[in-house]
Amino acid sequence: MEKPVIRTKCPNFSSGPCAKRPGWTVDALKNALLGRSHRSKEGKARLQEVSDRMKKVLNLPADYRIGVVAGSDTGAVELAMWTMLGPRPVDIFGWESFGKGWITDAVKFLKLPKVNEYKADYGKLPDLKKANPANDIIFTWNGTTSGVKVPNLDWLPANHEGIVICDATSGVFAMEMDFTKLDVVTFSWQKVLGGEAAHGVIILSPKGVRRMEEQNPKITWPVPKIFRLVDEGKLKPGELEYNTVNTPSMLCVEDAIDALKWAESIGGSPALVKRSNANLAAFEKWVAKSSWIDFLAETRETRSNTSVCFKIKAEWFLKLSDEDRTKAAKKITSMLDKEGVAYDINSYGKAPAGIRVWCGATVETSDIEALTPWLDWAYEAVAKEYSREAVK
């Protein structure tokens, strides 16, 4: 196969931090509030703006609260677990690296007395219908390392008594979500919005706020200061929206505001979802004609439209050892890196050897369409190399 002629205009397909919004330049940060306190009047106004714009783009219920916390999405999930769990048994669903990590935290570190673990291998979902209406629930909306998402929330019990904590990073802004069924939603703007790293976001329903306030004086384990949002038994006005516990980067806040303005300009959340779906559709069209590649997700309805994970199904590849499969897959991605057409598309380290391409809303469909011939080209070159080695 000859080397393709058409090249990707933006080769950034990392699953985090992700590609910047189309047309982004550093000039977008020229009004950043640098050298000023985040607790100044102007600093609080910027933080309030980023909270308000996120709430508007996501069309959150009016009584939900949203704000910036430390430690990216991981910090936001940990904050919720360390300050809200305890009163009820917990059902945790994990089908990839991060979701299974929440199980480890609940069992090994928080040492919760009753944790029900529901797990599945990469590419699959556990049985979500096992969720108990009397229990707290923790689940990941979209498995960034597996390319498997929950298709909807129909499985959540009606009149749920416990709280529902949803790790929604790489899902929020790109997938339709019914926030009225969720009490805690966490994410990082480094994903679908293409923002910078280190900052997390937490969304709390009124029920979630009540749990945090009621549970705070009953906590028996050490809680890091950056997780302590409740003061004197209350999550006071502004404590999420603009009065952050730790010092945020005002440069990153400005960048997030820019991304949200772009999102608003193209039509808000529906437009972001549409762009991500169009990118997945371009991949689906390619996979349908391919003899060597397939989605890691086993069903179409659970297929992610952001962190798209692929497995190599060619017979010669499947005959290799796990170590050699990893090497072969990296040879494919390294060729595209060297050509400057696709960066950072290796599969996650603990996932099956393959390819992972971010195709969230900041990625142009034309770049996905330009990338697929290059993937075929690199695969064919590596397949021929292994064929020659087999003959020897």
Structural write-up:
The chain has helices at 41-58, 72-84, 97-109, 206-215, 250-266, 268-289, 315-318, 322-339, 365-391, and strands spanning 65-70, 90-94, 115-119, 136-140, 142-143, 148-149, 164-167, 184-187, 199-204, 293-295, 307-312, 354-358. It contains nine helices and twelve strands. The strands form three sheets. The protein has a seven-stranded mixed β-sheet, sandwiched between helices. A three-stranded antiparallel β-sheet has the order 10-11-12. It has 392 residues and is α/β, with parallel strands linked by helices. Helix 1 (41-58) runs parallel beside helix 5 (250-266) and helix 6 packs parallel to helix 9. 36% of the residues lie in helices and 14% in strands. The protein has two domains: 26-264, Aspartate Aminotransferase, domain 2, CATH 3.40.640.10; 268-391, Aspartate Aminotransferase, domain 1 (Alpha-Beta Complex). The radius of gyration is 22 Å and the shape is globular.
